[in-house]
Structures are given as structure tokens and as C-alpha cells.
């Protein structure tokens, strides 16, 4: 087994990409770079903040999640997943300790979408009224 430095950012990117079921080609396409560039990136011990932020966005995680990623946490998370403890004592992801009701968030999202739709409909009505006024003047 090869040992990599615990903060080898490229390796962390590769592992997160693999866990997401994403191929290097897909990541490359999303980043607008070649597959070879992704390979080089994943071999890099450090990555500049701007590029890391973009990679994180494509992988659907935060920059901090990449920086703090560890195999041990992932293993502990899945080992503890089935017992529903979700405790943080074994280093599991704290993000899974839900501090809100997901149904409330869903309803909130629905209400926001409804308001947005109503604003869009009103904007269309205003546009139609404006165009009718223009036609009447001609």
C-alpha cells in the first residue's frame, strides 16, 4: 500500500470524484479542461483556492469538504449509517445531524417557487398590457 500525505488535495479530489461515481472525463468536461489535466490535478499535492473552489462546485461539495476529507471519516460514516446513531464521536459527518425538519424546508421551497411563479405571471401580464397600449397608439 502506498502512503500519501494526509493533506494531498489531488488524492482527496480523486477519491471524492470516485465516490460520486464520476469519471475523470466527466470532471474534465465540467471544468472545461482535458482529461489529462484532471489526471495531473489529482496527482497534485496542492491546488490553488480558485481552482479548488471550482472543482468543489462541480463535485457538489464545499472546498472545505475536500480539504477536510478523510477515508477514515467515510468508513466510519458508513459503518455507523445503519445503526441510525449518526453520532459524531466516531468522526462521522456532522452535516447528517439534521437540525431542521426536511418537510418544512420542502414547504418553504414550494412557497418560494409559488411566489416566483406569481411574479413571473404578473410580469407577463404587465408586458402584454404594455404591448396592447403600444398597438392602440398606432
From TrEMBL:
The record, for Pfam families, names: HTH_3
Domain HTH cro/C1-type intervals: 13-66
The protein's matches in SMART domains, at most eight in alphabetical order, are given as:
HTH_XRE
What keywords sit in the KW lines? Answer: Coiled coil
Instruction: Name the Gene Ontology molecular function terms of this record.
Output: DNA binding
Q: Does the keyword RNA-binding apply?
A: no
The molecule here is called: Transcriptional regulator
Q: What is the lineage of its organism?
A: Bacteria, Pseudomonadati, Bacteroidota, Flavobacteriia, Flavobacteriales
